[in-house]
Amino acid sequence: MKKPINRIIFVDDDTIQHMINRKNLQRLKPDIELFFFENPFKALEWIEENEADLLILDVNMPEMNGWNFLDLLKEKGKEIEVKMLTSSMDPSDIEMSLNYGMVSGFLIKPLKNEIMAEILGV
């Protein structure tokens, strides 16, 4: 049985999506703990000190892309399930994800309620 998702960290430079995702996820699971970061470096600092059940990581961000973020996570020895977040499915991203055992899938922006409910198991 899959372990329940109670803490999610989002790393995405889109603050509008943060607001929408927070509202929708809290409606689906009111007791969920959500952590949102626009800055990937601040997110890495948070992950060093804290645990989460799932990382939802934007592929394309201005400061660093999602793949660089995953490389830094690996360097730090941090293991967490990751769903890559993208606005368009690029076949090269799927190919790239095969290099990262922690990547369990891709999510298309904007996140749909059915997809979030499936991830949360509600």
From TrEMBL:
4-aspartylphosphate: modified positions: 58
SUPFAM superfamilies in the cross-refs: CheY-like
InterPro entries attached to this UniProt entry: Bact_response_regulator (IPR050595), CheY-like_superfamily (IPR011006), Sig_transdc_resp-reg_receiver (IPR001789)
Alphabetized Pfam families for the sequence: Response_reg
Domain Response regulatory, first and last residues per copy: 7-122
Superkingdom field: Bacteria
Keywords on record: Phosphoprotein
Protein name, entry field: Response regulator
Organism, as annotated: Shivajiella indica
Lineage: Bacteria, Pseudomonadati, Bacteroidota, Cytophagia, Cytophagales
